[in-house]
Amino acid sequence: MTSLSHAKFDPTRAREYAEQARIGLAGYDACHELSACVLSAALAGAKERRVLVVGAGGTAGEITTTARLEPSWTFVAVDPSEPMLTLAQAAVEEAGIGERVSFVRDAVSALPPEPAFDAALMIGVLHHIPEESDKARLLEDIARRLRPGGSLVLAGNYRAYDSEPLLLAAWANRWRLHGASDEDVQAKLARIMAGAVPPESEEAVAALLAAAGFSVPERFFSSLFWGAWHTQRET
C-alpha cells in the first residue's frame, strides 16, 4: 500500500479489523479458504512453494488457511502498517506456524526485484489504493517477483459503490443485521466511500492485470462488491 492508504490502519482500526471485516464481507472465511484451495490446485506438483502475501496485516487468514492446507509451503508477509502486521504476527504464532513465515514491514517494492516466488496472495488491498497508477505499479511490483507462470490470487472490491444502489443498501443491512444503529451504518458507509477506491469493473481489474503482465483472470468467488480471481504471470 502507499503511505497514504496504510496510514488509516491505526491501532484502533487494526484492533477492530477482524470483526468488521467479517461483517463487511459476507463470506470472509469462505473467500480465504477458496483462495487457499485454488492456489493449491494451481500449484499442484512440487511440495515446497514460496508464497508472497501482500497486505498481510490483520487476521493473516490467507496465511494460516493456506499453511494448514499446504504444510510444506513458506510465506513472506509484506505490509507497511505496523499495527496490522503486529496482529498478523500474533495470529501466525497462535497457529503454530511462525517458523514458516517471514514478515516485512514495508512495500512490495522494497523486496529484491527478482522472481523469487512461486505465487502471491493479495486479499483486500487493491481498493484501498486511491490512485490508478499506484494500483498498476503494485501489480507490476508483484509480477516482477513471481517466477514465469507463477500464480496470483487477487481479491477485493470492484465496481464503484454508487453504481449499484441495491448492493449498497444490502451492504448497509449487513451491519444492521449485526446490531449497528442507522447512524453507525451511515458513518461506516461514509468512511468506506471516502477511503476506498475500487476498480470500476471486472473488466478494469482484468485490464490492470494485463498491463502488469498477467493472464486473463478467472473469478472464483463473489459477494456484493467483492470478487476474487486467479491469474498467472505470463511467461
TrEMBL record:
Q: Which GO terms describe its biological process?
A: methylation
Superkingdom assignment: Bacteria
Does the keyword field hold tRNA processing? no
- What Pfam families does this protein map onto? Methyltransf_25
Q: Is Methyltransferase there in the keyword field?
A: yes
Q: Where is the Methyltransferase domain?
A: 53-150
Q: Which residues form the signal peptide?
A: none
Give the molecular function GO annotations: methyltransferase activity
Keywords in alphabetical order:
Methyltransferase, S-adenosyl-L-methionine, Transferase
What this protein is called in its record is: SAM-dependent methyltransferase
